[in-house]
């Protein structure tokens, strides 16, 4: 079916300006932040991944594995690159979602644990112990575990000093909220070369198997990837006393809405110019 060209407006009649339908989307996006008005900007400022491609991990620090045994970070690097995700195992919100997203893609993406990559989920909460790590590992293995995952998927905890050094190295800025008893922290995946150097990041939950394969291959080859677009997803708590969500995708929506508003404003201006010329 062919589309017929629009008929020009008759002389003497003023054509109605053509407002882009997408403007409604912009208005919706601008309204979304109201869903999270329970969170002040001060609570979220500074919480992000400060991407640090080329940074070296503190391989000498000691963590604890899911059995409670000490494990030096360097022991994770026995050949393949490391796929690293930071969060905490008792997180009531998005940590498990982020981990499940990554592990399901790894399961279905054709990569082999131990040959193509090592995976590590490291808790940012120094109060968590091997019991929490073991429980998270057992649940994730039951749902997503491919061959080799038992040995090459590591769920680790650590003391505050060691965790702080690791977070600083990868640019992970978080904050503990005393009132909510929860961590506000960024979501993302860090890819580390076999020599313990940050190769690159994936900072959203919309990646697919090809994204993971590409990032893993780059890390395996030692490639340092420039920082990705700063779309910010944060994991934060839900405040039952106020009924407000604190999931700070709001920042990403605000940035996206502003950019979209600018684009649609330009389109509307051009459409208006064309309509005026037909008057």
Automatic annotation (TrEMBL):
InterPro entries: SCO1/SenC, Thioredoxin-like_sf. The keyword RNA-binding does not apply. Keywords: Membrane, Transmembrane, Transmembrane helix. This is SCO family protein. Belongs to the SCO1/2 family. The chain crosses the membrane at residues 252-272. It comes from the Bacteria. It comes from Methylocystis bryophila.
